[in-house]
Every structure is written in C-alpha cells, then in structure tokens.
Amino acid sequence: MDITKLDDKQLLESTKNLIKQEQKLLSSILLHLQEIERRKLYCDLGYSSLYDYCLKELRYGPQQSWRRINAMRMLKKLPEIKSSIENGSLTLSSINLASNLFKEAEIDNKADQLQIISGMKMTTQIECEEKIFQIKKKLGILKPLKKSFIRNITPDLLRMHVNLSKETFEKLQKVKNLMKEDDVDKILSRLFDNFIIQSIESKRENRNFQASNSRYISRKVKEIVYKRAGGKCENCHSTDRLEYEHKIPFAKGGSNDESNIQLFCANCNKRKAIRDFGLNKMDYYFSSYS
Ligand SMILES: [Zn+2]
Fold first, then answer.
1. Confidence check: pLDDT of 147 > 60
2. Confidence band, pLDDT 50/70/90 cuts, at residue 212
3. 150, 169, 238, 259: most buried, per Cβ within 10 A?
4. Is the pLDDT of residue 213 over 80?
C-alpha cells in the first residue's frame, strides 16, 4: 500500500487500524512471554532470565523489556485485564504505573488491584500519574517517601544502600587491591555469594544431612565443580543464584560424584528439571515451593 496515495480520512483510519492491531499484538506478546517464562525456554538459548532474553534475543531496550515483563506478570495475576489490553484501554505505561504502585503501597489483594487498575482505563499517562498521586496521598505514602534502601533497577538487578563502618570499608579496599578488581559491585556480589553459600552449606552439614542414600553433595565435590565451572552457570554463564545440579537426576539413579554434578543458575536448574521431569510435574512443584 502506497500511503502517500491515501486521502486524509483514509490515512487517519488506516493509522487507527494499525494501532488496534498493535494493541492485540501486545496482549499476544505478553502471553507468549508468560509461556516462555513458564517453560524457562530462554535457558535453552543460553540466557539466565526472561529479562536477558528480551534484551539480547528480542532486542528490546532495558526499559522496554522491563515494562513488558512487568505487564506480563500483571496479566498473569489479573487475567481479567486481557481484553482491556487488547482494546487499548489499558496501556503498557498505565499497567507499569499500577505495578509500581502495588509494590510501593504493598497492595497484594486481587480485588483491590482490579479496582485500582479499572480506574486507569482510557487515561493518558499524565491522568494516570495524577490518579496514582491521589491514591498515594490517600494511603499516606506520599511524603516523605518510604525509606527504601533497596530499589529495583531491572527485574534482575537491585540497588541497595549499605552503611559500612570505616574499618569494614578499609578491609573492602584491601580485597579490591588483592583481587585487582575495580568494580566494587562485583567484589561485593562475590563476597555475599561466597558467604551465603558457605553459611547454607555449614547449616546443612550441621544437620547431618549426609545419609548414605541422600542427594547430599559433599563440600569437596562442590568445590571441585565450582572451580571447574569458573564460578558461573555452566549453561548460560550467569553468576546469579548458583545451585548444584545432578546431570542424571538423583531420582533417576544419578550419583553425587563430581562427574554427575554441575553448577547451574536457578533458572537453568529449573529448565533442566522441566526437561528431566516434564512441564506438568514441575509446574506443580514450582507453584508449591515458590
Ligand atoms: Zn544459567
């Protein structure tokens, strides 16, 4: 279609039709993302999270990815809003404003959420922001802002303010020099990870977890595997939420020997479980334990 040949009325109508298609597509894309997340399919492509997949595979920008993932989660919790997304009365922007409000005001109740979000239908961004301003004012969470020390930067990245003593800070500087690493974020993440893994392990050992027929993986095996994997997920190379995983599942006779253990991030581990045991079984398991 040569749009330069359309008369004014046709051009305006054609634009409106395209927007309608775009709105339907958005709803469909969100449902696709939801199903990809359920299957953890992005792990097969070497990504550690849905966000990573949106960013690198689908080539959305950070903000675009984040907004779609937020909207996808909202649609998952409130399937009632599907038709409003499809007909364009709820936009990505209003859904995200609502999602931020729910987090900030800790509004978890589905009926409350639906009521608030229905008031955001057919609003412009400015109108929607104004409504949120009024809700926050009513809830008394407007001023002063909550002393939030942890803030979401992306779905996978948090910003945390930490108060350190001068002494601890000097120790951190020493570690920085020893590790020849300038990136303090990386140093702190590694320190936290190591400390957390060690704490969990010693707790497990104290509980005498090591029965002869248990799925217990010894600290020695973990050390070997961790070193072998270079401290990264052996599937997607993420360093986030690392777990030790049986290549041949323990339930299917796999051993606790280092040759059968690998280091995976939590999402790749879940994806592997889906492949080993099937989506239906793991859906039930994840929903029971998450
Ligand atoms: Zn991974």
1. no
2. low
3. 238
4. no
Cα(276) to ligand 1 centroid in Å equals: 16
In a domain, 155, yes or no: no
pTM of the model: 0.61
Angle at 35 between CA 34 and CA 41, to 5 degrees: 110
Tell me how far the alpha carbon of residue 237 lies from the centroid of ligand 1, in angstroms. 6
Q: Are residues 48 and 136 in the same domain?
A: yes
27 CA to centre of ligand 1 in angstroms: 28
Reported as a single tens digit per residue, the pLDDT across 47-61 is 999 999 999 999 999
Residue pLDDT, tens place only, 260-273: 999 999 999 999 99
Which residues span the domain enclosing 19?
Answer: 3-148
Q: Are residue 243 and residue 166 in the same domain, yes or no? A: no
Output the domain CATH number for residue 269: 1.10.30
Cα-to-chain-centroid distance, residue 77: 15
CA of 269 to the centre of ligand 1 (A): 7
Q: Are residues 256 and 189 in the same domain?
A: no
Specify whether 18 is located in the same domain as 111.
yes
